[in-house]
Amino acid sequence: MPPDIHLPPSAITLKEMKADLWRRAEKGSVGGFAWEYTHLVDQYFGQRVQEIGPQKFSFVLVAVGGYGRGRLCPGSDVDILVLFKRRIPSGADVFVQKLLFPLWDLGFDLGHGVRTVADCTSLAKKNFQVLASLMDARPLAGDAAVFESFRATFNTKVLKNAGRTFAESLREHNETRLAQYGDASGMLEPELKNGLGGLRDGQQVVWLSRVLEALEIAPVFLPEELNRLRDDQAFLNRVRTALHLAAGRKNDRLFFDLQPATSQLMGFSSVKASPEDRGRGVEFFLSRLHQAMTRIKTMRKALFQERFVNSDPRSLPVVALPSVQATPEGLCFKEPAKVTADIVLEAFLESARIGIPLTWGARRLVRNNPGRFAARLIDRSETLSSLVSIFRAPHGSVACEGLLETRLLPAIFPEFGDVEFLIQFNDYHVHPVGRHTMNTVSLLAGFVADGTGWAGEMASRVKDTDGLVLAGFFHDLGKGEPNHSLAGAALARDVLERYGCNAARTDEVAFLVEHHLLLPKTATRRDLSDERVAAEVAATVGSVQRLDMLQLLSLADSMATGPRAWNSWTQSLFSELYFKVANLLQHGPFARPDAARRLNETRQKVLEVTSGLDAEFVAAAVDAMPTRALLALEPAVLGAHISQVKELWDMVAAERVRALSGEGDKGINSIKTAPGRVALTTELTMAAVDQPGLFAIMAGAISLHGLNILAADIFTWKDGTVVDVFTVNEPKERVYTEELWLRISRTISRAMIGELDLAARLEARRNSPLVIGRNGPKLAPLVSVSNATSDFHTVIEIAATDRIGFLFDMARTLAECDISIRLAKITTIKGRAADVFHVLTNDGQRLLDENRIETVKKALLAAAACS
Question: 39, exposed or middle or buried, with CB in 10 Å at 0-12, 13-18, 19+?
Fold first, then answer.
């Protein structure tokens, strides 16, 4: 029997035409998808009503929600309402079944209701979600008089009576949306439907504009502004269509791994494009998307501010400006026809001081011709001074939002406009460059204004706080260039000179911009126990004043970048580097005799803290320790290492005795734990007798048990003992931590003697449905090898898409290349790994042979690319 024999002709037609629509869309034809899909479903209902035949009752079939708006995406629900004028007749249920059952058979997600006009009115007054769905009601088939009765009743009894309550419900709903979905207009993984700036915002503008019409209140937006809103909404709907097709299911979060396919369906790159071109296509696509979402969100906020805020005119602040006044809707110009560029800038400064935005009409005046006002402001020192005052004012973010929305700030600084919506296809920067820049400026202004906490206290010591804020504004404007720090410094110098900034401030801002990554890169990639590292930073910075400014800029930049760049662990690294450099700048560099003296003092203190152990063993242990351990670690820590190594060698000796009787057990190791130096971290100190690939085994065992490695210090003693110190995030289940450490130790033992295939176990864990994978862009791995970074080691940096066991894979690859890891700096937060290894060859030399370096790079690239 043919599978569709039970379907009516209308459903068979719908099935065939839908399949054709999907085939065309999957090849890139998404432009008219929503309209065409809606038309197909409309056609089905029209034909199906005719197939069922005349009814004894009057009804109207109504599309509501997204279907009513004519915006069906591949994963959209089809929401339908069977509406009766006064009562629901007895035969209605049979009619509804005949109408909808074929769609259920076809797998449609249906939402349906059977109501009277009075039911709709009553429900809409009580439930804002019902009211919202009925806002988009569209008749499909049936008695037009029934729909007209509904529309008239809805407008007079619902919108007029419940319109303001509806708006207040939407306002509360928006707060929930922000908490649940975030501000999509500035996110790299935006939620297209419910995130702020998403489709729901545009729908609210349309709904509330209808409420204003019903209440006979003047509209906020001009027809051409509503037309632009519809264009932006249509673009978002096309993106949502492409996203559903790329995901193969209903999904409104534009995850990293779906962005290339979605971008391609939207026409921003081709199937044959190179990985680099696909990445650039995604960046252009996200830039366009964020611009649309920003405009949509701004219109929604303006509508609420100007028509649905109940503010008492008597509570409005007094505005001292003669050309500007405060109203319940916001700041407006008293005589719009006489507004000059200076008046506009004064209005934004007043907005920054009192926290009241300019009205939509006032902003429209600027938005219609920002270049005209900017022409009067460009290259004037007064303009720069006013903008810095706006940045530093208590409500600077309110004014800055207006400066961006009206396009005045990009018109004054085209250099800012060039990168404002620039997106980098990675998960490191949470926001586009423009949003990130303004967040950085806001954070710096907050440090300066607050004066409390360690950042505020540091800011209070800065002499030129305006220069610091300007450095925050310019620090990323060189993005898009190969070396954005150098490009940004040159750009800042050029702009500040044009604006008549004095030479001292210009030099300082250019310096801060050029070196704004110095502290973050050094803290997260270099061996901070190496005195040369702090000395190099001190030599570059030159003074504690500059160090303070650079630390504040780095702090604000990292906090504004996102969790990959700023978390408790990176904060601890920043602080360690800062205090070491500050100490050098204040007290001068260490001399060699001083280093020798400190080594002798450390040895003596180690003997004191280990007085309970065998003195001969302790002396031998101190001699066996690498010099770096004596310089990097406190005597108490070194004493603990010696005690742990003593236990290890006692276990080894006992194992050798058992081996003589045939009962020996190999793979001996020791694990000690202590709270990490950062909250919610644990320090695992592992001791074992060295063997090839030992560090990889230890790292793999930790990853296999679900812990995230933040850092690793490797201390290889001259007697063949290895003491590796891992800093890991605390386990999620802290109740059974002792059992966890025992399991890790047993895993290491079995792997050391070849009883356990760690690579296979990690691969199985990666593929397990019980393990939540990390989202991140799938980018080509990068490997760099440097002998200039450290006096003692070759430094290898690897950046790649993160995965479970990534550190194990890299360490195992290095071991297979006869490379010994001495220090590892691990960054594995969210979807991108950026790991740095300080290494030597197995015979203790730096990696200098170019052919061997190329072989190691190829091996690491191949291992990093595996997924």
Answer: middle
* Order of strands across the sheet that contains 60-63: 110-116, 78-84, 60-63, 138-142
Classify burial at 808, counting beta carbons within 10 Å of its beta carbon; exposed 0-12, middle 13-18, buried 19 or more: buried
Cα–Cα distance measured from residue 531 to residue 285, given in angstroms and rounded to the nearest whole number: 46
Classify residue 431 by its DSSP letter: S
Cα(11)–Cα(347) distance, integer angstroms: 61
Number of helical H runs and strand E runs in the chain: 37, 14
Cα 416 from Cα 384, distance rounded (Å): 14
By 3-state DSSP, what share of the chain in percent is helix, strand and coil, each rounded to 5? 60, 10, 30
User: What strands, in cross-sheet order, belong to the sheet with 832-841?
Assistant: 669-675, 681-689, 721-729, 709-716, 819-825, 832-841, 794-801, 782-786
Strands of 231-363, DSSP E = 324-327, 330-333
* CA angle (825, 481, 287) in 5-degree steps: 95
Within 8 A by CB and 6+ apart from 492, the residues are 470, 471, 474, 477, 506, 509, 510, 513
d(Cα 111, Cα 143) in Å, to the nearest integer?
21
Closest by Cα among 827, 859, 863 to 525 = 827
Residue type at 358 in one-letter notation: L
User: How many residues in the chain?
Assistant: 867
Helix (H, G, I), strand (E, B) or coil at 375: helix
* Those residues with Cβ within 8 angstroms of residue 754's Cβ, 6 or more apart along the chain or in another chain: none
Mean pLDDT, 10 residues at a time, the chain of 867 residues? 72 95 90 94 95 92 94 94 93 92 93 93 92 94 94 92 92 94 87 96 96 93 96 96 93 89 90 77 90 95 90 77 92 95 96 95 95 95 96 95 95 93 62 89 93 87 96 93 93 96 96 95 83 89 95 92 67 88 80 64 89 90 88 89 93 76 67 87 92 91 89 87 89 74 92 92 80 57 88 87 86 93 70 80 90 95 81
Exposure string of 833-846, with b = 16+ CB inside 10 Å and e = fewer, is bbbbbbbbbeeeee
Cα dihedral: 197, 484, 565, 259 (round 10) = 40
